[in-house]
Design goal:
heterodimer, A: mainly beta, Methylamine Dehydrogenase, Chain H, 4-stranded antiparallel β-sheet, 3 helices, 30 strands, globular, B: alpha/beta, Alkaline Phosphatase, subunit A
Chain lengths: 392, 424
């Protein structure tokens, strides 16, 4: 499930489109408001939830009431956005890098670096494990739930893709084909296809049900063999489909100059799904600042947003026909995952500074009191400067 | 630093004449008479000891190898695995090595206080911190000098996989510098060119010797001597070029060692040790994982593990392990703290090496770090302690001195001593 859940994603996207159309037809003023919802230039921090360890993965539930995070530790963290209630889901055996969520039954599936896959019934005050299994030899790097909630696809360091029943965790199919670690997976919104991507930037399309290999898509620009260090650096760090499944975006690092210092340029590659043709290679404005660890289409389909960095963290907003971001937003540390909130105007970022941060993409609206306080503060500041200057 | 025995200083006439006692008189006059005989006897006893160093360049993480700390804030994502040595657990990234741990021991309390690549490597390969204006011989050169059979046609020190500098031998002279092989291939020109038959080659050599001897009569220097000896060594090596030949390696061994460079380098090292080369260094690069430490350790240790374990197993099967000291080292370890790039940085404060084979009490652990690996809490040692231990393990006295321009230089730091618990 690419953004926030299969059928739910379809219906939500449809709702967004219909609402936009209705707003545009009905009253221009409301249409402007809707357009503002899609323009992230007003992005501002709405909430911060702080844990004990750096955060690597995040997902909202379908109601958008709770945020789940995978961390550099053996737990999953859950926060209620309204009450800020915090719950630990203990049971993983290593770091959790990938999560996915399905609305029916509030199922959260998490893969960890010890090779375990756990399906959590996540809604209750004390979430319980529905099933758990030893999924891969080495890391589980990829977890994706099919839009109909029938399958869970996983990928790992054993170079395998595995298909499991979401209901009971039974293994349905084991798929070979990747020659290197499988970094990511995503189901097409139609539910007909699965795409998996590996360390070398090779994307493989599989037919859901038969699980036959359909084609490879080349995203090797996101991998480089570093001769000095004698290792491949790269991989499909993030993956997402747009709401109607006409486009696919993946992300990672390109133009690597020093693999072991992490010096490369964050990049996302946009593909036309039908033809498999690369439409755009989108990079950060500045080169050599790390990797893009996660990428998402905004449900409007107007732009994609990525996060990553090296020593400093960023959010990059790319229009689909431009190579450079139209907006870069500084994070307090490196971002490792993005989740879009079902309301479409908020997003969460899992950040290495042990926080998951909720950002509102709309311009910040301050109350009259707040605005006055700010004005007053600015005036006082100005006065102080004048006084200091006078004393000098 | 140049070797200066050109001046006819007695202590450096040559290692061969030194062993034959030619320097006894001179050193006896200096009051070292007893030491000379003891040293000569000791060296004769140690003559057939061999050493292999696996140097994991860039600084391998102790937490992803010999001293894992799972489920701690510094431990990383990996689990531990049991080994063939009861009670010893190592990182899951070394499953084949784990099966050979009864042939190895771990030193988990190293604190070299050095986080610089070059300086850290210097400490680990010479046993001393860098000293301005002076260079101690590297371990390979020192053991080549002290352990190689005098009449051996083989180089005493071969470095495989890059690195290896003529400076390593320092005042011991270029004869004990490493023969560096960047790949698992023989040095070039080990066969006569087609235009030259054996008879013509012998005539050519005889003429060169005649001219060379005349030249050396009044110009003898370490460099000229090693220049001349390099011809006879080259001739001997041409006759023994089989030691570089991996064509006879079985398919099974190729599978065990792998088709990558490091696997071939280990196979070559096995050949060289079997053939009698005294000191072999195999370098594996690169572990300088400031970014994505865990991904890269999966890659690098995935390549390292099986060939290393196969090498130990094969030496054991061939009866060579009891006379061959195995050292697996780096220039330092890596920080327990994981940085924002999911990397680990340089860390000389609390890290580990593995030792095995000749003279080593195997299947044990010496030293201990705290719960999350940020400090040594028991049996802290440094490069000096390790050098004392290496010397003792191969039957040499580390308190003995080298002499350079008549001045003694300690082989191992006199402020330290051997790790006795490790010695068999």
């Amino acid at each position: 499930m690419s953004n926030f859940g299969g059928k739910a994603a379809w219906s939500l996207a449809l709702t967004v489109v219909l609402q936009l159309a209705a707003l545009q037809a009905a009253e221009p003023e409301s249409a402007d408001k809707a357009a503002l919802q899609m323009d992230p230039k007003g992005i501002h921090l709405q909430a911060t939830f702080t844990g004990q360890r750096p955060m690597f993965a995040c997902r909202f539930d379908d109601a958008g009431e709770q945020i789940f995070t995978g961390i550099e530790g053996n737990e999953i963290q859950r926060w209620n956005l309204s009450t800020e209630e915090h719950t630990e889901l203990k049971g993983q055996s290593s770091w959790v890098r990938r999560l996915d969520y399905f609305s029916t039954g509030d199922l959260l599936v998490a893969g960890d670096y010890a090779g375990n896959l756990i399906c959590w019934e996540s809604a209750s005050s004390t979430p319980r494990i529905r099933w758990e299994l030893d999924a891969h030899r080495g890391y589980v790097r990829a977890v994706a739930i099919s839009p109909d909630g029938q399958y869970v696809a996983t990928g790992g360091n054993d170079n395998l893709v595995k298909i499991w029943s979401l209901t009971d965790g039974l293994l349905i199919r084991q798929i070979s084909g990747h020659e290197r670690h499988v970094y990511n997976a995503a189901f097409h919104p139609s539910g007909e296809w699965l795409v998996t991507g590996d360390l070398t930037g090779i994307l493989k399309q599989w037919e859901v049900g038969t699980w036959r290999h359909v084609r490879d898509i080349d995203a090797k620009v996101l991998c480089k063999y570093d001769k000095t260090f004698r290792a491949d650096c790269g991989g499909i760090r993030g993956i997402d489909f747009n709401h109607d499944g006409t486009q696919l975006v993946v992300c990672g690092v390109t133009d690597v100059t020093n693999a072991f210092a992490g010096i490369g340029t964050p990049a996302a590659v946009l593909f036309d799904w039908e033809s498999g043709e690369q439409l755009k290679l989108m990079k950060s404005e500045k080169a050599g600042i790390g990797a893009c660890w996660s990428v998402r289409f905004h449900p409007s389909g107007e732009y994609v947003v990525g996060t990553g960095g090296r020593t400093a963290g960023k959010l990059w907003f790319w229009k689909l026909d431009e190579e450079q971001p139209f907006l870069e937003f500084a994070l307090p540390n490196v971002g490792y995952d993005i989740a879009m909130h079902p309301d479409t105007y908020r997003l969460a970022v899992a950040v290495y500074d042990k926080t998951v941060r909720i950002y509102d993409l709309r311009p910040e609206v301050k109350s009259k009191d707040e605005a006055e306080k700010k004005d007053d503060g600015q005036k006082k500041g100005s006065v102080k400067k004048v006084e200091k200057a006078a004393k000098k | 630093m140049r070797c200066s025995y050109a001046c006819h200083s007695d202590e450096h006439v040559s290692r061969r004449s030194f062993l034959q006692g030619a320097t006894g008189g001179a050193l006896g006059m200096l009051g070292f008479g007893n030491m000379v005989h003891a040293r000569a006897a000791q060296q004769l006893q140690s003559r057939h000891k061999q050493v292999v160093v696996f140097f994991l360049r860039g600084g391998v993480s102790q937490l992803e190898t010999w001293d894992p700390k799972p489920n701690t804030d510094t431990g990383g994502p990996f689990q531990t695995i049991a080994t063939s040595a009861p009670g010893i657990h190592i990182c899951e990234l070394l499953p084949y090595t784990a099966q050979q741990m009864h042939h190895l021991s771990l030193v988990r309390g190293i604190n070299t206080k050095e986080n610089n690549h070059a300086k850290g490597a210097y400490i680990m390969e010479t046993g001393h911190p860098e000293t301005p204006g002076f260079q101690y011989p590297y371990l390979g050169s020192a053991f080549s000098y002290l352990l190689s059979p005098p009449e051996s046609p083989l180089p005493g020190y071969i470095s495989i996989g890059g690195g290896g500098s003529s400076r390593e031998s320092s005042f011991l002279g270029p004869r004990f510098a490493p023969l560096s092989l960047s790949d698992a291939k023989a040095p070039s020109n080990l066969t006569l060119p087609n235009s030259l038959n054996t008879e013509a080659d012998e005539r050519r050599r005889a003429f060169r010797n005649q001219i060379g001897e005349r030249f050396a009569e009044n110009r003898r220097a370490a460099d000229t001597e090693v220049y001349n000896s390099s011809y006879s060594q080259a001739k001997a090596l041409m006759a023994r070029r089989d030691i570089f030949d991996l064509s006879g390696v079985s398919d099974k061994d190729k599978e065990r060692y792998g088709s990558h460079d490091f696997g071939r380098h280990c196979l070559l090292a096995r050949n060289l040790i079997e053939s009698g080369v005294t000191f072999v260094k195999v370098r594996h690069t690169n572990y300088d994982t400031h970014s994505e430490n865990f991904n890269f350790h999966i890659e690098q240790l995935g390549e390292f593990d099986r060939p290393f374990a196969s090498f130990i197993s094969d030496l054991q099967d061939r009866g060579l392990l009891q006379s061959t000291l195995i050292i697996c080292m780096s220039e330092f370890g890596r920080t327990p703290k994981i940085n924002a790039r999911v990397g680990r940085d340089h860390w000389g404060t609390a890290w580990s090496v593995a030792l095995g084979g000749c003279g080593i009490q195997t299947g044990g652990v010496v030293g201990k770090t705290n719960k999350n690996g940020t400090a040594v809490v028991d049996r802290e040692v440094n490069g000096g302690h390790l050098f004392h231990t290496y010397y003792r393990a191969v039957g040499l006295d580390p308190t003995d001195d080298f002499y350079h321009n008549g001045r003694p230089f300690e082989k191992a730091d006199p402020a330290t001593d051997p790790i006795q618990e490790l010695l068999a």
